[in-house]
Amino acid sequence: MSEYYVSKSLETRVIREDGDPDEWTEHETDSITQAFGAIYFAQISQSQTPPQVTSVTGSDFQLVETTRNFRSVNVSNPRGPGIVFGAGTDPVEYDDADLASRFISGVNYSNGQASITQTSTATDVEVERTLGNTSGSDIVAREAGHVANGQVTGGGAEEFLIARDVLDEEIRLGPTESLQGRYTWSFPV
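^ that's the sequence the OP posted. Answer follows.
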């Protein structure tokens, strides 16, 4: 029997003050969080009750099946879904609900974008987003994550951390520089 698994990769690049981007750097990735499995289960189970999962706000919610689950683009809110960055260095834990120290103030996030590539061996989904440093001083990124929407009972949507990675190298951003991140989720055939 063949082994099939979901894998992901993370690449980043700095866009310098003059607008020129650095080359993409691939980082070691080692986490898919508890929320990923809970959102996936809610999406495929329809009539079964998925487990409660903790959102990025620290509250526990029951997820339900909907077209809004896993939404990760077109939101520029730093607490909203998409790729997020922070300064934390705490080791990754399966039950992480948010980054250890997410950048919220002194930054802006782009709306993000997603694309899909299908081949005879895999389907790859890329999610990309840019963080702009508007703080007026240097900031240092040491962690990245992927936050996705999850529909919860009562009709609302919450944001859940589905992946978190401590970067193998810190990334220093000067004032007005930006950090682009790209997670690629690969689903082999």
